[in-house]
Structure formats: structure tokens, C-alpha cells
Specification:
Chain lengths: 118, 107
């Protein structure tokens, strides 16, 4: 079964850091581009970051540029999001999503919740 | 950044109704558009990619059309499991952007 499972969320104080992980299974992870998308409570979807299959191309949303870092380990079939200098407005459910045809996203994890609060 | 808008923001419909949702891009995006369905507490589910290609496993009552700046998602005969929020997403250029969503609920 094709699956993505996020982990690493939790409660963190403003200014602190958190590292999210996304474990992939059921497909050849190294062949796919990957994305991070988040959803604040009661809000819509916000794309955060993209990484190509070989890690050669990376993009970020302006809202996280300079604070968040996407990376992947193809040997471990894992995707990561290092989040630094967290703010209250980063509170959200964070999803990893597999890149698909025409840069859509066809497989999503169940999400991991990040709460930034003192 | 390419801003995406959707209309209506919500729609009340009955089982069997035809529902049409519109998505508009601030600038042309060719056919680089996807549609997702999201139910409360769940991850989004890809319905349509490349503006009009039906994702495998998605019922044929869902269809997408459009190119350039104007796109539509249609549900030909609304079923109970279709009550959800629908989002469009442009994939023409980074940063990818989503529309604000359209909530489809029961009349």
C-alpha cells in the first residue's frame, strides 16, 4: 500500500525549533518529487515547500523562507521539514504530499499537528 | 505569486443535484490546475489534475474543465459522500497556491 506517515509534531514555544518527518512506503520514494503543505485551524491549504526527487531543486513559500528547510533521505525513504524560529501563526496540521502528474499531489499523509504557544 | 480565487465560497445542494465550482487564476496557468476534496479531519484527496484529467479511482461524476485563467469542477449528480470542501491548486509556477476552498453542504 502506498503510504506517507508524518511524525514529529507537538507543542513548542515561540522561537523554538521542530523537525517533522514523513516516512514513505509502498512506492519508489527516490523517483518522486515531494511537498509539504499545512492547514491552520479552520483555514485552507497552504503549500510550503517542494523538493525534487534528487534534492537538486527546492522551493519555499515566502511565509517560511529562511526559517524552514526541506530535505530528504532517499536511502531511508524519508522526507523532512526542519522548522526554526517558530511563530504562533505556524500552528497548523502539516501534511507531506507526493508530487504527481502536472505537479499535482496524489498521495498525502494523515498530517501531524504543530502548536506554537507559550 | 499567482492568486487563486474560488466561487462560490459555499453551496448548499441536494442529493442528485449538479454542482459547479469555479476557480480563477490571477494570471494564465495553461492547464496546470488540480482539484482536491477534503473532508473534516482528513487529508485532501486528489480528484482532477491537468485541469481535466480524472485521477484513478475517482468517480466519473466528477469532471474538470478550463484552461488559462478560468476553470470549473463539476459534480454531475451529488452523492452523500460528496459533501466536503473542494480546493483548486495552481501548479504552473512556484510558489504553488491553493484557492480558498468551496464548502459543499446539504440543503
Amino acid at each position: 500500500e502506498v503510504q506517507l506517515v508524518e511524525s514529529g509534531g507537538g507543542l513548542v514555544q515561540p522561537g523554538n525549533s521542530l523537525r517533522l518527518s514523513c516516512a514513505a512506503s509502498g512506492f519508489t520514494f527516490s523517483s518522486y518529487n515531494m511537498n509539504w503543505v499545512r492547514q491552520a485551524p479552520g483555514k485552507g491549504l497552504e503549500w510550503l515547500s517542494y523538493i525534487s526527487s534528487s534534492s537538486s531543486t527546492i522551493y519555499y513559500a515566502d511565509s517560511v523562507k529562511g526559517r524552514f528547510t526541506i530535505s530528504r533521505d532517499n536511502a531511508k525513504s524519508a522526507l523532512y521539514l526542519q522548522m526554526n524560529s517558530l511563530k504562533a501563526e505556524d500552528t497548523a496540521v502539516y501534511y507531506c504530499a507526493r508530487g504527481y502528474s502536472s505537479s499535482s499531489m496524489d498521495v498525502w499523509g494523515q498530517g501531524t499537528t504543530v502548536t506554537v504557544s507559550s | 505569486d499567482i492568486q487563486m480565487t474560488q466561487s462560490p465560497s459555499s453551496v448548499s445542494a441536494s442529493i442528485g443535484d449538479r454542482v459547479t465550482i469555479t476557480c480563477r487564476a490571477r494570471q494564465g496557468i495553461s492547464s496546470w490546475l488540480a482539484w482536491y476534496q477534503q473532508k473534516p479531519g482528513k487529508a485532501p484527496n486528489l480528484l482532477i489534475y491537468a485541469a481535466s484529467s480524472l485521477q484513478s479511482g475517482v468517480p466519473s461524476r466528477f469532471s474538470g474543465s478550463g484552461s488559462g485563467t478560468d476553470f470549473t469542477l463539476s459534480i454531475s449528480s451529488l452523492q452523500p459522500e460528496d459533501f466536503a470542501t473542494y480546493y483548486c491548486q495552481q501548479a504552473n509556477s512556484f510558489p504553488f497556491t491553493f484557492g480558498p476552498g468551496t464548502k459543499v453542504d446539504i440543503k
